[in-house]
Design a protein that fits this description.
The protein has a single domain, classed as outer membrane lipoprotein receptor (LolB), chain A (Clam), CATH 2.50.20. The chain has helices at 2-14, 20-41, 123-126, 220-225; strands at 44-52, 55-65, 71-77, 84-88, 91-96, 101-106, 127-137, 140-149, 156-162, 168-174, 180-191, 212-217. The model is unreliable at 1-19 and 220-226 (pLDDT under 50). It has four helices and twelve strands. Strands 7-8-9-10-11-1-2-3-4-5-6-12 form a twelve-stranded mixed β-sheet. It is α+β, with helices and mostly antiparallel strands.
């Protein structure tokens, strides 16, 4: 990700002195890079609310990265049917107590929250990237970054990143009339917490021994070698 940002910045510099708009775009891209890294590299524990259309769901997340580069995460829904997701690096196990089912798959971890762009290459061609003012989310001061689409075929986006760490505290996708289509925001959050095995341990693993296990999400080669 750093190399992508460096390439973009070099491209701006090669064109000559940066205008105010270019400088603003560079700052916004730097914040997006910082957000993507923070969500993967930091230890944090908190509760957030996700909204889509008229539905909302609260979840609890615990995320840790150890010194060896191992990534551990536990995500549990707090509304509606219980659902728990345990992730260790690229192995994801989802416990569905209501139907007594365990889903196991391997996947490349997506950035948290999933509304963050997967790639920054070419982003300024599709969006105007702006660094706006400061705000507060869950008691933490955060920097607002806005992605305004250059055409009517893309959604707009707004993010608020914790000023010191860059961790995304709030994100939203915006429609053509600036209406919120999808959003995520922490309601409580602790950043930099020491690793705790108990916080990423499944509460359903012991009782799920007789549940149906679906491993169809794992490639056959991985199953054979496992």
């Amino acid at each position: 990700m750093k190399s992508v940002l460096s390439a973009l910045l070099l491209g701006f510099c090669a064109a000559g002195p940066a205008s105010g708009a270019d400088t603003e775009s560079q700052e916004g891209l730097a914040w997006l890079t910082k957000m993507a890294g923070a969500s993967r590299q930091l230890n944090y524990v908190g509760t957030f609310v996700y909204r889509n259309n008229r539905q909302s769901e609260a979840s609890r997340i615990a995320h840790f990265m150890n010194s060896g580069g191992g990534e551990f995460e536990r995500l549990e829904t707090l509304d509606g049917p219980p659902r728990e997701i345990i992730r260790t690096n690229d192995q994801v196990t989802c416990y569905l107590p209501a139907v007594k089912t365990v889903l196991v798959e391997k996947r490349t971890p997506r950035r948290f929250p999933t509304m963050l762009p997967e790639h920054l290459t070419g982003l300024p061609e599709s969006y105007t990237v702006r660094k706006e003012g400061l705000d507060r989310v869950a008691g933490h001061e955060c920097q607002v970054i806005v992605l305004e689409p250059r055409d009517k075929y893309r959604y707009g986006h707004s993010f608020c990143a914790e000023v010191k760490s860059g961790l995304p505290l709030r994100a939203s996708s915006l429609g053509e009339k600036k209406e919120t289509l999808e959003s995520f925001a922490f309601t409580e959050l602790v950043i930099g917490r020491d690793f705790s095995r108990d916080l990423v341990k499944s509460r359903y693993a012991a009782r799920s021994k007789d549940w149906k296990v679906d491993r169809s999400g794992i490639p056959e080669t991985a199953v054979a070698n496992g």
